[in-house]
Write a structure and sequence with these properties.
There is one protein chain. With 734 residues, the chain is an alpha/beta fold. Strand 15 and strand 16 (474-479) form a beta hairpin. The protein is built from 32 helices and 19 strands. It starts with 5 loop residues before the first strand and ends with a helix. The chain has three domains: 6-294, 2-enoyl-CoA Hydratase, Chain A, domain 1 (Alpha-Beta Complex); 329-509, Rossmann fold; 514-729, N-(1-d-carboxylethyl)-l-norvaline Dehydrogenase, domain 2, CATH 1.10.1040.
Length: 734
């Protein structure tokens, strides 16, 4: 055998050990070379009478993250090439056969006549866990970092190497569907309790436990290949089956609104597969997998949520000629909700934190937020008391700016007022060293303006977190006009250290995310002013793919803040910059009704202490008229909510705020939940085609006004047939 990615050894008992350890990689991934080598190993084990069985393990800290999705991307390019050269039928035949290679290999392993066992430590996800499921026995380590799962649904795919069929034969159908729909990573004991693995053992014993199972006569026949096998939930067409499938279909529609073809394919593959013998079931799964692999949704989500996000997380926008920075201590100014969250994620990443506020009491209160978050983790079994104590020891609350003197980075999160921030900047620069980078967490104030208060504007940068900091994965890095490359490199290194995803944007009012969010909230306000029922606005937003409706989102960010921004914009830019219908609504809510949002439990929703939130009935009285919901075009409402955000994203590109389409797409999904199935705000335009998008925008402009006017960049692309990603590639090649 010619092996590069695996080490293959046979012990004195005749048990083979295939250790997966791809050279030059921190994580094993499945690619064509790995598939070829694993095939050689299976045939060697099957054909050599001296080999009793084989244990597959990893030589790295984790088993494997699954398949290299760029391999699947290349399949799409192969299909298009063959389609041009040999026609659609031949292109689809080759595409189907290539897309099921892994499924056929795993089935060969499963039926080769020799027992295979998987010894799993660390993450084992996607195609790697499908490999484990094809093995006849699975042992996982008992350490907290070990996880198994099938997360393909999160990038617009579904398990296509046997995952849907094996999971549905190991677990109750309802549980299997839930696992496949959620794509969660599952801890060792839970995986054993769910029937996904057989044994949990200390890390140093997993390979020996797997070998012991083979020595003890472990069966080389999977349960579903036994003549008397019965699925855990019985037959599909049975009284028990009919208790599962109608509700499953209803749940699928409620959760996805038919926006995610992969989720529907899961439902279909499991439903049809459970009625067939395993080989036919796997072929059915492969056909659905090939279909989904060619969908726009899968292409968009793979590109944005796997490839682009991975590139940004690895520092795609980091200046190459700036040496890596070592951030040991971070100063956080302001111990309110945002500052306390920043202190937590920073300390959680192992850095020392000086948390400064006007009084020591306020700073201590900010530190207590970290205590609460860690206590919640302990209650859930995800952390130990010692972890909490260690994290809290890294946070030093203070009311003295002098304590910031040896910080490598400052993150300012004080009140959103230029004068307050300017005073904080002066106090910090009076005590810190000349190399300290200053990052402002402002969400609305231009960075270049704030930097005027600094004596070293080249070391001044925006680091915009989203709320709540500990849960939101996006951070906007904002370049001021004079921001230098070392400041950018430091900010990106810091964001990577706290395990969040950065996007780099140029300075402008609202930056990127808040501009798009503002357009979304504005559209919800205008729908309300038109007389659209509030519940319809919120439900249609979720039908369009947004995580929450615009009214609910406005409650979260505060209605009085929205009014403050409208008034500030009007004063600074002029009356034409604000929509009078929106201003009237916000004035009525805040000044007329005292409804500020979730923070005072009274906004577009009421927030009772005991019970779920509910829309405020008084909204009806604020509408000049009420439209009959049966006369409203639901598709048009969905289009308005998405198109308005996409148009704003396009304007940020035209204005040079966004210079890389990857950042707009990743930022729009992670920052404000832009319908993930589209791949992001710019991919929404690209996959629709600029010409089609322009026609849709013009239709909405005719009916609803100039806010839907397409910028020149869209009109130009519509004329040339260009795309945002195509423009980026052209610039890169130039």
């Amino acid at each position: 055998m010619d092996l590069t990615h695996f080490r293959f050894e046979i012990d004195g008992d005749g048990i083979a050990a295939a250790t997966w350890d791809s050279p030059g990689r921190s994580m094993n991934v499945i690619n064509l070379d790995v598939i070829s080598e694993l095939s050689q190993i299976v045939e060697k084990v099957a054909s050599d009478e001296a080999i009793k069985g084989c244990v597959v393990s990893s030589g790295k800290d984790s088993f494997s993250g699954g398949a290299d999705l760029t391999m699947l991307q290349r399949l799409g390019a192969l299909h298009e090439q063959l389609k041009r050269e040999k026609g659609e039928e031949e292109a689809m035949r080759v595409f189907f056969e290539e897309s099921r290679k892994l499924s056929l290999l795993y089935r060969r392993l499963e039926t080769c006549g020799k027992p295979f066992a998987a010894a799993i430590h660390g993450v084992c996800l996607g195609g790697a866990f499908e490999l484990a499921l094809a093995c006849h026995y699975r042992v996982v380590s008992d350490v907290d970092s070990t996880r198994v799962g099938l997360p393909e649904i999160k990038v617009g795919l579904f398990p296509g190497a046997g995952g849907t069929q094996r999971v549905a034969r190991l677990m109750q159908t309802g549980d299997a569907l839930q696992m496949l729909f959620k794509g969660d990573q599952i801890r060792p004991l839970m995986a054993r309790n769910m029937g996904l693995v057989h044994e949990v053992a200390p890390r140093g014993e997993i390979v020996e436990k797997a070998k012991a199972w083979i020595r003890g006569g472990g069966s080389a026949v999977a349960p579903w290949d036994q003549p008397k096998f019965r699925a855990p939930s019985g037959k599909v067409y049975s009284p028990a089956g009919m208790m599962i499938w109608p509700p499953a279909n209803a749940i699928y529609r409620r959760e996805t609104h038919d926006n995610y073809p992969a989720a529907k394919a899961v439902l279909q593959a499991v439903y049809e597969g459970l009625q067939l013998p395993m080989d036919l079931a796997l072929k059915v799964e492969s056909r659905y997998f090939a279909k989904i692999l060619r969908s726009n949704e899968a292409a968009a989500m793979i590109r944005t949520l796997f490839i682009s996000m991975g590139e940004l997380n690895k520092g795609a926008r980091r200046p190459a000629d700036v040496p890596a920075t070592s951030i040991r201590k971070v100063g956080v100014l302001g111990a309110g909700f945002m500052g306390a969250g920043v202190a937590y994620v920073t300390a959680n990443a192992g850095m020392a934190v000086v948390l400064v506020d006007q009084t020591l009491e306020a700073a201590e209160k900010g530190k207590s937020y970290s205590h609460k978050l860690m206590s919640d983790q302990i209650m859930k079994g995800r952390a130990k008391t010692a972890d909490r104590d260690a994290l809290l020891s890294r946070i030093n609350p203070s009311a003295d700016y002098a304590d910031l003197k040896d910080c490598d980075l400052i993150v300012e999160a004080v009140f959103e007022d230029p004068k307050v921030k300017a005073e904080a900047i002066r106090k910090v620069e009076a005590v810190v060293g000349p190399e300290t980078i200053f990052g402002s967490n402002t969400s609305t104030l231009p960075i270049s303006g704030l930097a005027k208060a600094s004596k070293r504007p080249d070391q001044f940068i925006g680091i915009h977190f989203f709320s709540p900091v500990e849960r939101m994965m996006l951070v906007e890095i904002i370049m001021g006009r004079e921001t230098g490359e070392r400041a950018l490199a430091t900010a990106l290194d810091y964001v990577r250290t706290i395990r969040k995803t950065p996007i780099v944007v140029n300075d402008a009012r609202g930056f990127f995310a808040n501009r798009c969010v503002g357009a979304y909230i504005l559209e919800g306000h205008l729908m309300l002013a038109e007389g659209v029922p509030p519940a319809m606005i919120e439900n249609v937003a979720r039908m369009a793919g947004m995580p929450v409706g615009p009214l609910s989102l406005n409650d979260e960010v505060a209605i009085d803040l929205a009014l403050k921004i409208v008034k500030a914009t009007k004063a600074q830019v002029g009356e034409a910059a604000v929509n009078p219908a929106q201003e009237k609504l916000l004035v009525a809510m805040v000044e007329g009704q005292g409804r500020l949002g979730r923070k005072n439990r009274r906004g577009f929703y009421d927030y009772p202490e005991n019970g779920p939130k509910r829309l405020w009935p008084g909204l009806r009285d604020l509408q000049p008229a009420q439209l009959d919901p049966d006369t409203i075009d639901v598709d048009e409402l969905k289009q308005r909510l998405l198109v308005t955000q996409a148009l704003e994203a396009a304007r940020t590109v035209e204005e040079g705020v966004i210079t890389d389409p990857r950042e707009a797409d990743v930022g729009s999904i992670l920052g404000f939940g832009f319908a993930p199935y589209t791949g992001g705000a710019l991919s929404y335009i690209d996959f629709m085609g600029a010409k089609g998008f322009l026609a849709l925008a013009q239709k909405l402009e005719t009916k609803h006004g100039p806010r839907f006017a397409a910028p020149k960049i869209i009109r130009d692309m519509a004329a040339s047939g260009g795309t945002f990603y195509g423009r980026a590639e052209e610039r890169k090649a130039a």
